[in-house]
């Protein structure tokens, strides 16, 4: 029965979410896709009794309800504990503040600039690969974090000597975004963000003393012209500095891990340079590092017959929508030869809050695979990777590899 | 034809890349092409080319991008006579917005109101289509130029 047509007469069914998406179940956290599939088929809208939010999974619903003019993002960041720091940058703003702030960074991530940044990524990757021992042993996540962090620091024009420290602090700060954060997650995130704020302030001080030509210089110029506040410059810098390595690293790891399980994919990648972008797009669709975004409603809505009062939180499951069989044939299969209309994915979010670093991340991932596929014949897993996922953020702690020449 | 100017207005650089790729494709076929950013282009110079190809995205809530808005304002203000100008127009947008490709519509309307003649159909790239913007634009420009220079 179609919930939309029956809405007027029958109170629609709105199951509790954890019957479908058991947020804290380790099996769900490792592989949510079978759970998403059931929710997509049986429960287009679910409610979460723990916090009163509503959960949507279908591609079409995310695109529609996630983009209604009445939907707001700022209230969600106010609730996000230590991450409320983002209220001072574009991601934490609704219009018109959002566009004003986004414009301050957009020219740094254009397709042309990204070509330039990708060359530096290739250089960093080659340098790291040059340094490997004859055994070809490397941790895939270490490699990915270092090249992506170095790249974003190059864009900002700040020192890139602490990828490990930034990664450690982000590991501490991300769990809070779960639908079920533990009480100590809040404290740990506060601690991490305090430290990241201190480091960002130090970068700004250093930059004031040593001006250059990077993204941070351009933000400080905007501050001097009165176009941005000091708090906005700090939050924007912090954001790019700390997230630059994160989801790009996940996708690089996810691809390298895939190469270990399906070696013929590495050969196919090498053999089809014209499909490299499609390969990366499919990887992003296949397994989103941050599978959910949240928004707040400001008007009463009826979604699949369910009354959603103004002021509700919506959990929009990007990772599920990426596997919606209404859009993607064989959604759980990795297939980089999909037709264009099936290469869309919501991994970088959508609409005006779509990820500004998307082109950069996609280029970094492509370049790392290109360098590895050019230099090595095979990628082997030498021990099981250590993955620490929540329902809202996926992360490789380790990915022990051997690269075979 | 003498010279063709590809004029782009962009927010995040897609229109710039499309303008470059259109220009490269036309040069390959022997057409003299110059690419210019609306941000650096004086509206008084519009008469100098045989034809202008406008490439512009939509931003904010159906607005022209930052680099195109001052150019458009200058047209509206100075009201230059464009009756000698032939132009083609290509828009970049995203059909998931209700204000799909309003930017190019705004610019096209202003050009037409000032007397310019549009050649061919307006071309569109929809970011939601999954298609590469340059592929769409290069295919579009060749059909437009077939109209502009009947053999
Ligand atoms: C903040 C924002 C607002 C946008 N608003 C619109 C819009 O109102 N209408 C539309 O058709 N496309 C809109 N788009 C989509 C862009 O026009 C599209 O992504 C285009 O490829 C951008 O080209 P550019 O990089 O040359 O600016 C918007 C994109 C963003 C990021």
From TrEMBL, chain A:
Alphabetized GO MF terms: heme binding; iron ion binding; monooxygenase activity; oxidoreductase activity, acting on paired donors, with incorporation or reduction of molecular oxygen
SUPFAM superfamilies: Cytochrome P450
Homology family: Belongs to the cytochrome P450 family.
Name this protein carries in UniProt: Cytochrome P450
UniProtKB/TrEMBL annotation, chain B:
Pfam families: Flavodoxin_1 (PF00258)
Protein's recorded name: MioC protein
Residue intervals of the Flavodoxin-like domain: 4-145
GO cellular component assignments: cytosol
Organism: Amycolatopsis endophytica
InterPro entries, per the entry: Flavdoxin-like, Flavodoxin/NO_synth, Flavoprotein-like_sf
Keywords of this entry: Flavoprotein
MF GO annotations: flavin adenine dinucleotide binding; FMN binding; oxidoreductase activity
